[in-house]
């Protein structure tokens, strides 16, 4: 299938402010691009792209005083298949894990394993190892947290999400990642596009999404504690230890979000991209909607 992805995001800065953006498709999906993926800045600013320690594409700018608008609009090919199901995938003993995977067993800013280790072993210590154990963790996180945009808070750790029992997709992912790490299952946080493809269309505006991956049987598998069930059409942008590593924007100074629109739609083969409304016009149509914290979505 073909999926149209893009965004129209605006920040306001009172002073020139260095900023980083993780808004490019992950290198592992670049071969699937059907049209060029470009980030356009208005007003024009110099930008450069580098690859971070986790293999993500990061765009770096110095945002000027006033509004800086970022837009992108592209087509990407996807298999149309649901997330892979591998019920026989086994855990790998810590001593046999590849060196570069070990970091995804450690505590990180939002994944405070020390606070949840005893809980994790009491809940999952006797569960079947491997895929079934991860499924049990996903089910627990899904039931433990109640989703709502009003519950978004960018300082909430996994243990706080567990105790508060509210959150958005990043909180579901942080809790599941942390519980997996407590059980010695490497887990990493992911962010990207996830449209309402193969499921009922949501009644809230599209947003970026967060899910996670676990390392079983020598490879990474996708899980989603927010939705619990396999989904179609994930377009990963970035992977890391937690939301710190994959924040869609990082500002080294005051930068206020004043506009935020994300588009993720399946496009039938017979539809001409030129006939579709621009993402800018979609953003203008939704200008009166309340802003949400980026990466808090479905």
Word description of this protein:
The protein has 298 residues and is an alpha+beta fold. The chain is 18% helix and 31% strand. The chain contains five helices and 14 strands. The protein has helices at residues 113-124, 131-144, 158-164, 169-182, 279-285, and strands spanning 2-13, 17-21, 40-42, 47-51, 57-63, 66-77, 146-147, 166-167, 187-194, 209-216, 219-223, 234-240, 249-251, 256-267. The chain has a four-stranded antiparallel β-sheet with strand order 3-6-1-14, with helices on one face. Strand 10 and strand 11 (219-223) form a beta hairpin. The chain is globular and about 55 Å long.
Summarize the structure.
This protein is α+β, with helices and mostly antiparallel strands. The chain has helices spanning 113-124, 131-144, 158-164, 169-182, 279-285, and strands spanning 2-13, 17-21, 40-42, 47-51, 57-63, 66-77, 146-147, 166-167, 187-194, 209-216, 219-223, 234-240, 249-251, 256-267.
